[in-house]
Design a protein that fits this description.
The protein is α/β, with parallel strands linked by helices. The protein is built from four helices and four strands. It is globular, with a radius of gyration of 15 Å. It holds the Pfam family LMWPc.
């Protein structure tokens, strides 16, 4: 019997965990399903997810209306294989053996849905590339 590959885990981090990191986590969950463990957090979480972000994701069939911004913890970083910051200067604990990436993306805070769509599309492209790298589809 072949070994079952270990489920990789990814943590998306931005300051408020209300926009970019929420979009990235939603896309990774939507596209990879149970092949990847997904977390998102912020160093100074907002009270709610950005409504323009929720609307932009709803346009592509992803509902994040029940999501709540979460605070970044050392435990979340420690439990993740890949930590992706969203170009917002976060201080994130660094542990050996983790892979750290910085996705420099415009901040959707205070923007309308028209400004959020291109950010959403860029995040989807990056998430698809990440999945192909860390959790390719199982071969039959």
């Amino acid at each position: 019997m072949p070994d079952t590959p270990r489920q990789p885990s990814v943590l998306f981090v931005c300051v408020h965990n209300a926009g970019r990191s929420q979009m990235a986590a939603a896309f990774l969950t939507h596209l990879a399903g149970d092949r990847v463990r997904v977390r998102s957090a912020g160093s100074a979480p907002a009270d709610t997810v950005n409504p323009a972000v929720a609307e932009a994701l709803a346009e592509v069939g992803i509902d994040i209306s029940a999501e709540v911004p979460k605070v970044l913890t050392v435990e979340a970083v420690r439990a993740s294989d890949v930590v992706i910051t969203m170009g917002c200067g976060d201080t994130c604990p660094v542990f050996p053996g983790k892979r750290y990436l910085d996705w420099r993306l415009p901040d959707p805070a205070g923007q309308g849905v028209d400004a959020v769509r291109p950010i959403r599309d860029e995040i989807e492209e990056r998430v698809r590339a990440l999945i192909a790298e860390i959790a390719p589809p199982a071969r039959a």
